[in-house]
# Entry
Amino acid sequence: MQKSSQELQDELDQLIAWFGSDQVDIDQAEKKYKEALAIMRELSARIEKTENTITKLKQSFEKE
Amino acid sequence: MLPILSPSDFIALTNQTLEFAYPSVQIEGEVLNFKVSRNKWVYFDIADATAKIRCFGTVYLLQTPIEDGMRVRLTAVPRLHPQFGFSLNLQLIELSGEGSIKKASDLLHEKLDKEGLFAAERKRPLPYPPKRICLITSEESAAYRDFIKVLNARYGGMEILVANVQVQGESAPGQIVQAIEWCNKQADIPDVLVIVRGGGSADDLQAFSTETVTRAVAASRIPTLVAIGHEVDISLAELAADQRASTPSNAAELLVPDRQELRRNIQRQSQALHEAAESLVHSARRDVAYAYEEMNRELAHTIERAKEYIAAQTRTLDALSPQAVLRRGYAVVRKDGLVVRSASQTRKGDIMTIQFADDQIKTEVQ
# Structure
């Protein structure tokens, strides 16, 4: 299931916070850096999606 | 000659005449002697300064609470009842005049508030941003156009289902309730239910303060965002919603982030990430350089200690060497290359070699 933008944003925040923490492991840094870049690319792509799909419902809500 | 009628015949004849002359009437006046019987029947008088008429109907006609003194507009059928006399059989009760609408709204507000429909703990967070939105509004309205315009400008990639309903008038509450219920019955329900309507008089906005609409909003399993009228207009449906917006445009602003702001945010985070990574690399380099220096220091120290050890050993060896003994004034006597350890090893006339620290001499034993 595709992650929501909010979930991706939270993951990105956590990754950036990890880089700022005292427990940064240089061996993990490259992997986490690549993960963060991938999330940023995905979020950017979602932001640039300009089209919203508008579907006008056909059913009438007249009282039966 | 006039026909002689029984009371029942006369009542039947009168009702036929009334039905022909007034199949339905609209009367506006003040409510007096309002009462509800067995939670089913409603009785009151509609009055003006000089007259009053008895009215009768069911509680289902009451879209909002009514009490004495309120001004209402009735749609009713006049009837002459065999036991109770003349009355208006109610078909529709509408509030008339802002004072009455306000009063009815206050009464309903109090009632629903006691039931907890507006309680803060009932409020759910809206998904941010949502993927599927169900928008309940009038497609003809400026509110619809404003909402869509702001939404499109701010964020994309969403699916918006539009349920077109009347947003004022007699049929509005029923249509809005049906639309809310329809959305909630879908197998693939939307992430959020948005109800918007532009500004208007209290009468125009009345549908959103009716009990049925307010209860439907409160009962929605889909989180709700409601924006009715302007900032100052607060309908009961808005109070029952998970979130209220001051205007339809504001509803769009609350629902989704602004893509410009998101772009800036990602740029900021990208910069923060690069800075953090660079700092990490610098820190790692610094650690390696420090370790290298430390290693060099340790190596130099080890070498120094080794030198000192060797020097000490050398000094010890020097102290023990024959040369050092000779320097202290001793001498080694040799005869024919062999060390003479005793005088008994010598005879008169022997040629001896005496080894001093700096040189050697030959001598003869006498």
Q: What stands out?
A: The longest strand of chain A covers residues 53-56. The longest helix of chain A spans residues 26-48.
